[in-house]
Amino acid sequence: MIKNVYSGSVDYLQVMDENGKVDGALRPTDIGDDKLIELYRWMSLSRAVDAKVISLQRQGRATTYAPLLGQEATQIGTAAAMSAKDILVPNFRQHGSLLFRGLSLYDFFVYWKGYEDGLVSTKKMNSTPYIVPVSTHLVHAVGIAFTHKYLGTGASVLTYVGDGGTSEGDFYEALNFAGVMKVPIVFVIENNQWAISTPVRKQTAASTLAQKGIAAGMVCTQVDGNDVMAVYKATKESLANTPKGPSLIECLTYRLSFHTTSDDPTKYRTEAEVEDWKKRDPIKRVRLYLESKQLWNASKQQTMEDEQLKTINGAVSKADTFKPDPKSMFETLYSSIPDTLKDEETDALNSGFWQEGTNPV
Amino acid sequence: MMSNMVAAINSALDISMEENKNAVILGEDVGRDGGVFRVTERLLDKYGPDRVIDTPLSETGIIGTAIGMALSGLHPIPEIQFAGFMYLAFDQLISHAARYRTRTRSTWSVPMVVRTPVSGGVKTLEHHAESPEAYYSHSGGLMVVEPSNPYDAKGLLIKAMHMQDPVLFLEPTKLYRLFRQEVPDGSYEVPIGKARIARQGNVLTIITYGTMVHVVEEAVSKKAVDAEIIDLRTINPLDEKTVLDSVEKTGRVLIVHEAQLSFGVGAEIAARIAEKAMFKLNAPIMRVAAPSLPYPFPGYEQFYVPNVRKVSMAIDKIMSA
C-alpha cells in the first residue's frame, strides 16, 4: 500500500510592490496613510542611525558594526505589529526593531561605542539585549515564551534569525521545542540573501526557508520583506495565532551593505545584483506611494532628515561623555562578588592599571 | 532520616518545588521515568507536567530554554542526563548563562540550577564518566558545585535554589547510592563557596572533592598520618581562605581529583598556594589526578581513576620530602 501521509505548502504575501502600488484587498485595516507615514519615518531614522554608526566606526569611535541597510521594512514592520507587553528577542542586527521598541539613541550609541551599559534599558522595554553567536538566542526566546504561557500573561515572543542562522542546530532545536511545548512565539527569518559571503543557495537545498518550520508543526509564511505592510500583516496574524502555538515568517529582503564594517562584499557578489535589489528598496517604495497621494514631497523629506540628524548628533555628543567604570565588569558577574574576584578587582584598582594616561607605551 | 545521595537530592528538589512556585524541572526522562538515576522520582505526580517537563532529546534545547525561563522570572532546574553530553550545550552555558548578567550589568539575571551526573567508577559506556568541572569554572560566571555526601548534596542544592545565579550542580554517579547518612527531613542550606574540613590535621593538607574525598579518607586512615582533609564542595568560586589557612598550619599540600591532571582544578589551587603561601611550604606541592587523556572504556578504569594505593604512595612521598 502507498498513500500520501503528508503534504505542506507555503504562501507568499506582498501588499505593496516595488513601485509603491498597493493591493487594497490585502492592505492591513489598521495601517492608514498616517500610520504608514509613521512607519516611513521609523524606517528612515533606522537608516540614518545606521549610516552614523558606520561613520563613527570609520573614525575609530565605534566598534565593529553589522548594518541593517535594506532591511528596514522587515524590522520596523515586525516591531510595529507587536504589543507593548510582547517580548522582542533580537540577534545582532535588529537596530531598527530595538529603536522602535524604545531603545534610546543615547543607549544605542553607548553600546556601539563598546559599552554593555547601553543595554541596561532593554528589560524595561520588554526586549532582550543584542546576542552575537548566531541562532543561540532562539532557544532563550522559546524559554521566555514558556514562562509567559506558564504565568498566563497573554504576552507573546517575537525573535529573529538570518538565512545563515537557519543552518544552525540551535535553530532546529528551538523550532522543535517551540512546536512540542506549543508556546506563544513567532520566529522571523530575516532572509537577506547573504551570510557574509555565503549565498542562500549554498546554505540550503530547500526552496524556501519558511518550509523549515513545517516539520516543527507550525504555520509558515513567506513575505516580501521589503514591503512593510506585508511584514506587518503577517506578523500581526502570527501574533494573533500564538495562543494556538508558534509560527514562522520568512521575510525576503536584502543586505544592501556589508556584513559588518570589517567585510568587503565586492569580493563575492556583483554590483549588478546589488543594483537590482536597490530597485526593491523598502523605503523608496513607500515614498513613491506617499508622493502619488500628495502626502509627501521633497520639502517634507528635507525637514525630516534635518530633524533626525539633529537628534542623532545630539545623542552621539551625549554618548561621547559616557565614562565607563571598570569595576562594573567585576561587580555584575554574580549576584554578589566572591572573595577571590574581589581580590582581583582590588589588585587592578590599586595597581594603577585602570588610571587613564598612565599606560607605559 | 538515613538517606543516600539520590534520596537527599530528591528531597531538596521536592522542597525547592514546594517553596518556589516558579521552580520547574526539565530534561530528558525526568518526568514519567523519574530520571535515569531516579533522582526526580515522584515529582511529576506531585507537581504535574507543567512543572516537571519531559523534553525532546536536545541538550542545547534544554539549557537554552532554561536560560529563557530564568531570564523571564522562573527558576528552572534543567537536568542533563550525563555530563559527557553537556558539551552540546557548552555554548549556552559559557556564552549566555555565565555572561547574561554582566552583559546587561545586572539588569537581567539567570537564576537556574543545572544538574548533571559526573565522574566514573561504575562501568558505564563511553562519555558517561567525565569530570568536566574545570571547563565550566575557567571563564567565570557559573558557580560550580560538587558534593561528596548526601547531607551536603541536599543543603547545597537548596542553597543554589535560593541564589539568583546560574549554578552547575555536579552529582558524582558513584556516590548516588554508595552510602547512607543522617539527613534532616526539612529545609537547610549548606553555603556555596565554602569548603568543609572533613578531617582536622597538622602535618599535611589534602585538598579534594567529589568521589575522591572517600578515597583520600581511606588512604589517610590506613597511613595513620595526621592530615587535614579539605572537601572543597564548591569548585567555583574557590574557598581560597580555608585552603591557605590550612597550608600555613601544615606546610605540606597534596591535591587529589578524579579529573585529568593537566590544566585542572589542582593546577589552579597549586598556583594560588605558590603565589600566596610559598614560604610556608616544607615540600613541593603534589597532585594526584587521572592521566591527561580521555576517560577510558571501563576495562581500563582501574588503571585510570586515582585509588587508595595511588593516594597512599603520594602521601609517603610528600611526607618524606
How would you describe this structure in keywords?
heterodimer; A: 361 residues; two-stranded antiparallel sheet; 8 strands; 43% helix; B: 321 residues; alpha/beta; Rossmann fold; 2 domains; 14 strands; globular
Oligomer: heterodimer
Strand content of chain B: 15-25%
Number of strands of chain A: 8
| Radius of gyration from the alpha-carbon trace of chain A, in angstroms | 22 Å
Structural class given helices, strands, pairing of chain B?
Answer: alpha/beta
- Largest protein interface, residues of each chain: A-B, 46 and 45 residues
Q: Over all CA atoms, what is the radius of gyration of chain B?
A: 19 Å
The percent of residues in helical segments of chain A reads: 40-55%
Overall number of domains of chain A: 2
Q: What strand line-up does the widest sheet of chain A have?
A: 1-7-8-4-3-2
Sheet with the most strands of chain B? 5 strands, mixed
Concise description?
Chain A is α/β, with parallel strands linked by helices and 361 residues long. Helices cover 43% and strands 10% of the residues of chain A. Chain B starts with a strand and ends with a helix.
Can you describe what's shown?
- The complex is a heterodimer of chains A (361) and B (321).
- Chain A is of the alpha/beta class.
- Helix content of chain A is 43%, strand content 10%.
- Chain A is built from 13 helices and 8 strands.
- Chain A has helices spanning 33-58, 72-81, 95-101, 105-112, 138-151, 169-181, 200-203, 228-240, 271-278, 282-292, 298-320, 327-331, 339-351; strands spanning 11-13, 87-89, 157-162, 185-191, 194-195, 198-199, 219-224, 247-252.
- Chain A is globular, with a radius of gyration of 22 Å.
- Chain A starts with 10 loop residues before the first strand and ends in a 10-residue tail after the last helix.
- In chain A, 46% of the residues are buried.
- The mean pLDDT of chain A is 96.
- By secondary structure, chain B is α/β, with parallel strands linked by helices.
- Chain B has 2 domains: 2-182, 3-Layer(aba) Sandwich (Rossmann fold); 196-319, 3-Layer(aba) Sandwich (Rossmann fold).
- At the A-B interface, helix 5, helix 6, helix 12 and helix 13 of A face helix 3, helix 4 and helix 5 of B.
